[in-house]
Amino acid sequence: MLDKTIKKSHLYLILSFAAQIVVGAVLLKSPLVEFKGHLEWLDALFTSTSAVCLVGLTSVPVNSFDLTGQIVIIMLMQFGGLGMMTITASVVLLLRHNFSWQNKKMLSIVNANFPLHNIQDLNRFVITYSLTLELLGVILMFPGFLFLEKCTVGESIHYSFFLSVSAFCNAGFSPLPNSLVGVSTYLKLVVCTLIICGGLGFCAIYDIVNRRRGTQLQINTKIILVTTLFLIITGALAIKGLEWMGYDPELPWIDALFQSITSRTAGFNTVDIPALRSSTLFVIALLMFIGASPNSTGGGIKTTTFAIVLLSIWSVCRGRNKLILWKREISPQFLLNALAIMMTFIILAIICSVFLATAVDSNMTFKKISFEVVSALTTTGLSLGYTPEAAPYGKMALIVCMFLGRLGPFSVFMFLVARTKPVTLSYPEEPVNLI
């Protein structure tokens, strides 16, 4: 029964995202939306997929769409960020209907750190938290655009609203011509804050906000907070240090910090990405691969997966056969799941990169193509220039990568949950040579 519930919910989620993408493409191509120049159906589909999957890769400039078109993109990002499952659950709650036991069980699996009676509260919190943060982002950005960027009142409202939704949803779309290159430090810091708040994950935020005095944060929340801080600091130091040794020793610290934060699935840029050193691009690719935290608007293999694998390696190097964190033992099953998710992503990235490099007629280097594939699979959106110049076949391949990247980690996780069965028999152990 549970296996059937998982399959139905998984299929529903896939079809929901596919439906959003198709509807978004039709709206962007409809007479309601004006586009500077001629918008091909493939570019409309590409933009819609990128918005729903929160990638940020664009085959045509966002500012080529009129206000109506950009509002459509905002709506696609919003629905993609919250996730169709959460949206549906929230609508049911607003209508004051109760979940069935099976629906509660399904939501409990996805948000495994919460008991059944808290799932409804969690989904109410998701909507309230998201809209509150986005509104706060609009309020904070408005004076930045009005007084620091010297925009008109209308432009300031437009840019603030668009970027607030895009940053919180880790989408990476920008209504400005060159992403966020050249904007004030104040606006960069606001965008960074929204990216972090959207990327921490609703479960971690829920745990922090609802923690009772004298109680400990859940182990999941601690891992997320420590890993996020570690990645932000080490990423900024690596980007600044590598560029200091290269072409741009004057790269500002704020830009190094910004790129460290945004590289983990947000996709904005305040510097010219193609002009960065290859070593810096490698660090950015690693950050893209790791991504944001579980139950968040971001993609990637997730911070918890990265932390569990890394800490397990460290534990083995210290001669320990168990992973202990904050006086809590991590089950070997979680390590196996983390390894499965990470290896699935690596294999998928390799296959897609090789396929795109061999099947697409392009003069782009493998570095640029593989970087674009990783960016699409991890729903980041940073680009070295391949996407705008890609042939129709290349754009279709990236559309598939974006869709797989958005649903990939969830699909692998749901598959593992559905297939997990207790082993009732015990067999003799036998060693295997590893060296």
What is the total domain count? 1
Q: Could you give the distance between the termini?
A: 44 Å
Largest sheet: 2 strands, antiparallel
Number of contiguous helices: 17
Q: How much β-strand is present in the residues? A: under 5%
Instruction: Indicate the overall shape.
Output: globular
Task: Quote the average pLDDT.
Answer: 83
Order of helices and strands: HHHHHHHHHHHHHEEHHHH
Q: Helix coverage percent of residues?
A: 55-70%
Number of strands: 2
- Structural class, judged by helices and strands? mainly alpha
Rg result: 22 Å
Strand order of the largest sheet: 1-2
Provide structural commentary.
There is one protein chain. This protein is an all-alpha fold and 435 residues long. The protein has one domain. The protein contains 17 helices and two strands. The chain has a two-stranded antiparallel ribbon. A hairpin with a 2-residue loop joins strand 1 and strand 2. Helix 10 crosses helix 11. It is globular. The relative contact order is 0.10. About 2% of the residues have low confidence.
